[in-house]
Amino acid sequence: MQIYVLQRAISYKIFMLVAFGFFALVMYQGHLKNELIYTILFIVFVALCSFEIVSIFYCLFVKRTLHFNINDKEVSWEFFDNKRLLKRVNIDKSSIKEVKSEVNYLTGNIYSRFTVTFILEDDSQIELTDGFLYSFGLKKAENISRYMLKNGLGNPQDIKFSKLIEELNIDIFQQQKFTKEEKDSYYTGVISKNKKEFLSLRLQIESLYKDYKIVEKNANNEYLVRNENKKESFIYLRSNAFGYFVEFYKVKRKEDLKMLKEMGRQKIGF
């Protein structure tokens, strides 16, 4: 079982309180002129300010913890406010069809919310999330994601990367690159906190493998391309809680991909 103490996020609540207070003052000027829309908005922002004040005091005195457990038969978790059970969820592992995890950012790299969505065989969904009052924070969100991947829950490519890290006994707290060849696949793993690594790896793939032009997946955390003359062959780049993972499947490889620190002064500019 994994136990996580959620962050109170007091500074974020104070920031939102100031922001709502500012907008309330602006709307108050319109309220004084008896304009209905400004009166409604003024009431809304005053209510939001009240909510933030109450939530600050609540979080100051109440510690929220998550007890998260995965075994061979089920996935379960419990939320506690101090010692009071707030919520308990149990999911039969055999009923899980797909698992998606997502970190949302407020602006830029400022953490906002973490959500794990369990999609069941009947297409119903169950979410594990930090909610509105408390926050897992990026580090705990990554730890939860790693814990799930080690137990076979998540994107198949990410699970493959997790197993490879365990097999090769890779230290995930040390920046490094490693490779492995296996049958028709060649793997490149990059352990790094530098978010520019993903774009760097993608640009290297585009530059070295110009015949892989069919873009099948193109998102912030994954890039999958195929060769129109070799339908089974593909290059698949993904980022996850461990780092960055590239699989070359039935690809005639050229030079190895490089980390940014290996490129030195010749590294790609962003």
Which descriptor suits the 3D outline? globular
Rg over C-alpha atoms, rounded to the nearest angstrom: 23 Å
Please state the structural category.
alpha+beta
Number of strands: 13
> Strands across the major sheet, in which order?
8-9-13-12-11-10
Question: How do you describe this structure in short?
Answer:
34% of the residues lie in helices and 35% in strands. With 270 residues, it is of the alpha+beta class.
Structure description:
The model is unreliable at 265-270 (pLDDT under 50). The longest helix is centred in the first third of the chain and has 26 residues, at 36-61. The protein has helices at 10-32, 36-61, 137-150, 156-167, 196-208, 260-263; strands at residues 2-5, 64-70, 74-81, 84-92, 96-105, 111-120, 125-129, 176-182, 185-191, 214-218, 222-227, 230-239, 244-249. Helix 1 (10-32) runs antiparallel to helix 2 (36-61). Helices cover 34% and strands 35% of the residues. The chain is of the alpha+beta class.
